[in-house]
Amino acid sequence: MHAASRDALDQLTRALDSGLEGSGDTVATGLTTGSELFEFTEVLDRERSLRSALVDASFTPEQRSGIVTTLVGGSVAPATAETLKSAVSLTWSTSRDLRTGLVTLGRRALLRAAQAQGQLDRVQDELFRLARIIDGEPQLELLLADRSASPDARRDLLAKVVYGKITAVTEALALQVIGRPQHRPVEDLDALCDEAAALTGNDVARVRSAAELNEQQRSSLAAKLETIYGHPITVHTEVDSSLLGGAVIRVGDEVIDGSTAGRLDRLRRSLA
Hints:
elongated, 8% strand, ATP synthesis, 4 strands, alpha+beta
C-alpha cells in the first residue's frame, strides 16, 4: 500500500475506533459495520468502473461521497455509510488500495465487536485452529485455494466445514478471506490471527510441541517470550509428535527450534 493510502487508512482506523467506542453498542455496531463493509467490497470487485470513480482525483471529495450516497441509500447502517463516505473522500493511490483499506476496516470492526464481547481470545484461537486443520488437509486447502472456482463456491465449502463449530465473528472473517484470498488460505488465516492479537498490542507465538502443553507451561512460555521480545506474546500451540521432544517456536519470521528432531538434524549436519 502506497503512502497516501496508508495515511488514509490510518485516519479511517482512528475514526472507526472512536465511532465504535462512542456508539453505545460496540458489539452490534461493529458486527453490522464489518459485515456491510465486506458486502460493499463485493460490489467493488464486480464493478471496475465504480472502483475507478471512487478514487478518481478529477472528482471532488464531495462528488465521490455523493456516488456512495446514491449507491447505498438507506440500505446500510449509518455508521457504515459514514465510513464509506469518509473513505472515498480521502486520497488513495489505487482502487486496489481502497478495496484493501475497506476490507481491513471491516475486519477491525468485527474484531472490535469480539473484543467488546470478551471473545477476542476465542476468535484468535479459532482462527489458529482452523488454519491448522486446513494445513493438515492438503485436499481441502487445494479446493479452498482454487481460483477457478467462484468465491461463493469456496465460501460454501468452508461454511460446511465450520458450521456450528466457531463463533459468528470467526466465521465471517474466515469466509471473507477464503472468498478473496491474498495468499494461501492458511497464511491468510494466520494473518487474521495476527491482526486480532495486535488489537491488544500482542505478537503471536506459534508453538509446535511434541506433547500438549498445559496451562502452566503455556503461561511460563508466554512470560519467557515476553522477556525476550519486550512486549506481550499470545501463545498458540499444536502437537507435532514428529518433533520427538521439545518444541519449535515461531514469532513473526524468527524460529526457535528447541525440538529433539531439530537437535538431531543439526548433529547430523555437523557430522556430515
